[in-house]
Amino acid sequence: MELDTISQPELEELERVGSADVVIGILDGDSPAGAGGGDGLEATAEARTREALAEFSNPLRAAIVSNNGTHAPAGAEAAGSAPSPVVFSCSLPAHVPGETSQQGIFNAYRKVFAVGGKLGARACGLIASPPRESSCEWIYRLIQPVLNLGFDLVAPCYTRQSMEGLLNRSVLAPLHRALYGEQLQNPMGPDFGVSAKLLQQILRQDSARRRGTDGTTLASIAVSAAFGGCQVCESQLGVRRQRPTDWGNLSSLLAEILGDVFVEMEGRAAFWQSIRGSRALPRFGPPETAPTDAASTPSLDVQGMRESFQLGTQSLQDVWGLILPPTSLLELRRMSRLSKDQFRFPDQTWARVVYDFALGHRLRTISRDHLLRSFTPLYLGWIASYALEIEGAGVTGADAPNENLSKAFEENKSYLVSRWRWPDRFNP
Amino acid sequence: MWNEVGESLRLSMTKMLDQFASLLPGVLALIAALVISAVIAWAFSAILRRSLTGLDFDRRVKQWGFTGLCEWSPGSSPTLLVTRAIAWIIVFVGFLVGVSAFDGALPSQLVNRVFNYLPNVLAAIVVLVAGNIIARFLARSVLIGGVNMHLQYARLLSVGVHWLVTVLAVTIAIEHLGIGGGIIRLAFGILFGGIVLALALAVGLGSKELVSRSLEREASRVSTPSEKEPVGHL
User: What pTM, to 2 d.p., does this model score?
Assistant: First the structure.
């Protein structure tokens, strides 16, 4: 059990409390403290938890781990009101300098898991998305399948605009589906419901890994569930507020996220190589319709993205030449000469490019940071192609289908397995 | 008198033959050292070549990005270059051992000076190799960073950084070897300053419009998408 994240006074408090049914982590604290999450959301973490737990027929004891610093001490309630279900609450330490955002979220999760493990919780609900009015519903939808239906991992399913969740659409979801055989919309959450079984598994794995060089990351949660044979489902959470996109720092975001995913992929190679096909997972909750007002319809700088891709194709040939096989390089050069109307990133090529980067990451062909950052022009090329495709197909506001891309990842898995096993001999 | 002349000639002949005879062991020792070192060099290079071929050294060198080394190598094979270099070093060491077998002050001094100079050569080689690795790493970082910042002249910047670091490494290496003395420092100052000045002039004058266009495009790119939400990556 990894308890180094809990302070001594908190540990004594946990000893006094004894046990709890659920642990809720509300980790949306990048909103200003005291603002209750901003945007007029005045409900504190405790109020939101109390509201969510009221929907269960049987009374539940809850612990809260929060990082917005707004919650009252556990059990504090107005005189004459019903006793609070919250038996323990604590807040997280400030953001550690030098820690990446994904690692920061996972470190916060680690504390939730440690509290959950100590209290013997049956379920953990983790919310790391920016707060919305419906946050209490989210808590309910994430822990209800764990408590009432016996699932081990409840992954989020958001109602997305066509240009939201681009990295999920292009890499994370298709890759998770092809490798681990589970069709998840958001394999990296960041909002999850976790059972006691999966919680213990993650804590054990984290404890083992922290003795080595690689730490557990956000990318590990869904992979651990697949690896441990856990029951996984999705829960419809509705529209998710997006944090502003930092386009100037896109390569750092890609390096951080894809680095974690590729490390996880390397660690589970023997497992995913034996998996064939994929399966749809149970999805709970009513689907929410995406807002279709004109103001929210994005109009990306597709031309600029194409130019970035073309610049990458011209200037990064030496770098990509160390990662990609000649056929892929030729295909990329051909694409860079296409006009805007004809410009498309074929699904097969994209899938192979992602696989080749994963392999290059494993082989350390060049510095891993260089490798991951050199992926940025390719990603921008894919976004440009995707934007042109949905514009041409007249898809607006809806969750545009990316079934073909996911199938391309599955079809090309044999290519990945061959190159992974025989990187020198199999180089088309 | 003729007897004395004959005696002198006989003595000088004996002296010369004595001296030649005293040199003979040294010559034989030199030949023996050369033959033995050549045999060792041949055996060692054969073992090394086989090991490097087994490790697929040629391909790995290309993979590590030392394509220049492949071009310089005989038969475009870095394995051949390394094995031949090692073999010649062994033969050279054998030659020095042989020379030191001569009983004389000059050969001993020569050997001492060569061995005293060896650390400088090794340090220069280390500096050159490290400089090359650092130059490649920095050049690649600048290239990838520049492309991700949508700078059209990213490649030019990358090449500039590569040459700056390489020139610096070569200068340090030459200084370690003790060649040139002050001239090298002066030449380095002129060359380094010249490169920096050329880059500054190119950016400041020649490429002013190119840079401003590129920076404008970059500025507009960074600010535009945030106004066009919702766009998200996760």
Answer: 0.80
